[in-house]
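B., you asked whether I could sanity-check this one before it goes into the benchmark set. Here's the sequence:
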Amino acid sequence: LYSPDSSKTDSPIFEGLSYHFSDVGNYKVIYEIYDTNLDLHNKDEIKFAELKVVDTTAPKISFTESYQSEYNLNEKIEIKTPVIEDNNPSGNPEWSAKVYQGESEISITDGKITLDLAGVYKIIYSFKDKSGNSESYEVRFIVVENDNEKPVIDIKGDYRQKYSRGEKIQIFDADVSDNLDKNLTVIIEVLLNGEPLEIKDGFIVPEEEGLLLITYSATDSFGNTEISVIRAEITGGGGLSGIIIALIVIGVAAVAASVTVIIVIMKKKRGKIDEEKRK
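And here's what the prediction gave me:
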C-alpha cells in the first residue's frame, strides 16, 4: 500500500493484509505475487487499484467547563475553548465563535466579552474539518441586573364606586410596561364578597349585594409584582323605577293643584266677608 502521490520508487507505507487508514486521500494498492519458493527475484508486480478514502463524519464537540445559565450585568467572561473529536486523526478541525445579544453581534476582545446589556445572550460555535464536514453548537444564557422596579399597570377605563345588583359591568382591559421585560401579561381577577365572579365577553353581572373587588396584577421575570385593586359597592336596587317616579310626579302635581284651589277658595271667602261688612 502506497500513500497518495507516491511513485514506484517510494517505499510502501504498509505491507500486509489489513490496514487502518489514518487520513483521507487517494491510495495505490499493489499486489506482489511470488513463486512457491519465495524467490524475491522471481516475482510479478500487478497494479490492482487506486483507493479513495473519504471522511463524511462531522467533528464532535464538548466542553471541559460549562457556561453558567445566568450572569450579572457588566460581568466579563471568557469564551471557552471546546474539545473537538474528529474521526480523522489528521482532520485538523477548525472552530470559531460568535456572540449575539438579541440580534446584535457582540465583539470578542482577547477571547473575552463584556456583558454590558441585560437580556438573553447566545454563543454560536462553528466547526469544520479538512474534508469540509461542519457542525455548530449553541450556548444560551441570561444577563440580569439587580431589578427592584415593579411593572406599571394602566387600566383602560374608569370604574364607579357603586353598582346595582344585576347590572352589567364592563371589565376594562389594561396595558403593562416594565423597565426590562417586554412581554408581560396582566392577570384580572374579580371577587364578589370573596367569591370568584366569572368574566364573560369582558363583562360581569353581580347577582347579590356586597363588596366587589377587581384586581389587576403583573409580575416581571425578577419577581417584582404590581397589584392594582378596584373596590366598588353592589347595592340592592337599581334606583327608583319609572312607575314610582311617575306616581311621585303625579302626586306632587296633585298636591300643588290642591293648594292652588284652597287659596282661590279662601280668597273668595274673604271677598264675601268684605262685602258683608260694607252692607
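One thing to flag: The longest strand covers residues 43-53. Otherwise nothing jumped out at me.
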